[in-house]
Design brief:
There is one protein chain. This protein is α/β, with parallel strands linked by helices. It has two domains: 14-61; 80-327, Rossmann fold (3-Layer(aba) Sandwich), CATH 3.40.50. Helix content is 43%, strand content 18%. It contains 14 helices and twelve strands. The protein has an eight-stranded mixed sheet, with helices on both faces. Strands 1-2 form a two-stranded antiparallel sheet. Strands 8-9 form a two-stranded antiparallel ribbon. Helix 7 (113-126) packs across helix 8. The longest helix is centred in the middle third of the chain and has 20 residues, at 175-194. The protein is elongated and about 90 Å long. Bound molecules: adenosine-5'-triphosphate. Adenosine-5'-triphosphate is lined by residues 107, 109-115, 138, 140, 145, 289-290, 312-313.
Length: 334
């Protein structure tokens, strides 16, 4: 409920606010729902002036309904699907990462979360020619690994350098720096990064749990509130700037011994899609040490618990990606 104040809009001066109060009109809602003609007579003000005030108050303080059709059209025009470059993950994600949404990769140590994130960054920068923000909170990102992945895609050093230029890396190791970084990206930093390169299409945070989980549990209430702030700024950034947010999370074991993503129930509502990565244990473990399984554990598009296997080795993954069907129409991503 917004209380009427002098100067809220042109024409709403001290005298009029007093007269309206005397007529029991104290809030914006009161003005909007009153009979303007009758109110104009009671307050001895012109109908035209009161009508103009009501129109401005309506524009500034109320939500306008939009039709479902308009909303759907806006969604179609603003949403892009970014292939991860990994056909197995694209299959689980129903073609790739959706802009405007948060997607989560969870898994235990060594399950390949970071390797997958590097691969996604390389694919978006090299194949889609778009910029990526990579927020590294574990210190796991190295330029040499990115270059190694790019070398598997192209032998042209100029193209490799151009792709590296489009990956913007922030290294930070606590939640306050993460929040600072996300707020500054949301308040204009994303557009600045886009200048000179492709527009930013993805923000990757590897790992979000590394900076949040130390603050949860025990008697610390602050941790939960900071986690919700991270979630809020990531969500609004994804929506307002039409970027895909990809975050990584650690895992815990449930009471029945099942692996589940960390950060608890409150966080579980934040990502729209969640994928669990695990090592594939085989009879000949050495030759298959880079095999991973990905299980869809939350999705609004696909049935949950579908599972795909893939190889973390980037060279073989690249060949697989280039020979397989491309799910992303690259021209759509701009
Ligand atoms: N250069 C490389 N080429 C191929 N595979 C690699 C390379 N470096 C690491 N790996 C594979 O990736 C695995 C580690 O994956 P990654 O660091 O992505 O795990 P993670 O899930 O991020 O783990 P953590 O939670 O501990 O950070 C290694 O066990 C190895 O199998």
């Amino acid at each position: 409920m917004v209380v009427l104040r002098e100067g809220m809009c042109p024409g709403l001066d001290e005298d009029l606010v007093r007269d309206l109060r005397a007529a029991d009109i104290k809030t914006v809602e009161d003005v909007v729902s009153s009979d303007i003609e009758e109110l104009a007579q009671r307050c001895s003000v012109s109908y035209k002036a009161l009508f103009a005030i009501r129109r401005v108050l309506l524009a500034q303080h109320t939500a306008f309904p939009v039709s479902g059709a308009d909303l759907y059209e806006e969604l179609l025009s603003s949403t892009a699907i970014l292939s991860t470059g990994n056909p197995s993950l694209d299959k689980l994600l129903d073609s790739g990462l959706y802009t405007g949404e948060i997607t989560e990769l969870s898994g235990g140590p060594g399950s390949g979360k970071s390797q997958v994130c590097f691969g996604v960054a390389v694919h978006i920068s090299y194949h889609l020619k778009q910029s990526v923000i990579f927020i590294d909170t574990t210190g796991g990102l190295t330029a040499s690994r990115l270059l190694q992945m790019l070398q598997a895609e192209t032998s042209n050093t100029e193209e490799q350098m151009e792709a590296l230029q489009r990956i913007h890396i922030f290294r930070l190791f606590n939640i306050f720096s993460l929040l600072d970084c996300l707020y500054s990206l949301r308040s204009g930093g994303l557009q600045q990064v886009s200048v000179g390169g492709g527009s930013v299409k993805a923000v990757i945070v590897d790992s979000v749990s590394a900076v949040i989980s130390p603050l949860l549990g025990g008697k610390q209430n602050e941790g939960m509130s900071l986690m919700i702030q991270v979630a809020g700024v990531l969500k609004t950034m994804a929506k307002d700037f039409n970027v895909a947010a990809l975050v990584t999370n650690h895992v815990t074991r449930s009471g029945s011994g099942e692996l589940q993503p960390g950060l608890g129930v409150s966080w579980s509502h934040i990502p729209r899609t969640r994928i669990l990565l695990e090592r594939v244990e085989r009879a000949t473990p050495v030759s298959h040490s880079s095999m991973r399984s990905a299980t869809l554990i939350k999705s609004s598009r696909q049935p949950c618990h579908i599972k795909e296997e893939f190889d973390l080795q980037w060279g073989s993954r690249s060949k697989e990606a280039s020979s397989g069907k491309r799910k992303l129409d690259e021209t759509d991503s701009g």
